[in-house]
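S1.2 Input.
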Amino acid sequence: MHDRAAVIKNLILHHPGGGAGGNDGLLRRVCGAAAQELAASGAGISVMTEDGVRGASAASDPVSERLEELQFTLGEGPCIDAFASRRPVLISDLGALVARADGRWPFYAPAAHEGGLRAVFAIPLQIGAARLGVLDVFRDRVGPLTNAELADALTFAEATVTALLDRQEQAGSSGFADIDDDAAEYRAELFQAQGMVMVQLGVTLGEAMARIRAYAYAEDRRLSEVARDVVARRLRFDGDEL
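S1.3 Output.
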């Protein structure tokens, strides 16, 4: 197992998918190496704060980026559940989940299935009581991870946590401090947008958030981008001229 961990760390270090340095480059390398090694159609990572707000994120390819982002647009999905429960979420047949009337993720599951996702495995990035985020492994075919693949997925998660913490220590004031700053800025912007839409439509805060999420989904845009446009007054929900 120790040898396998060394192999996976080497795969992450030398995978060509990283491009630029920093946390983004590291996360992209992990996603690319994980997708390749786990015979997956793709992989995604979201680094999150303790209250579940996302900071940095990355994916191995555009389709996986869409599947990763869709969870935060809709407010549900394997990544969010794995982070909250601190346990892996392993779905070997997403279609079976969609077919159930009381199925998990009533919005995410059918949307992701329609987009070609057939199985998804979400592995928390955590050390002790500290939660850092989630690694999502996506497949375009039905079927569980083998025992060896699950062990490798857990090792990928462990290696990612180690690499991120090492980078934080080396970078001093950067690393997760930057991620926390990004998350705080995102949270403030989203809350401000939520309040503005509430006033525009005369609805509750919960309904305002639902409207923002629905718009982001319908327009195939990131939730953060829609919030930014609302705050900048480039987008209104009441039909008034800008």
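S1.4 Remarks. Residues 172-177 have pLDDT under 50 and may be disordered.
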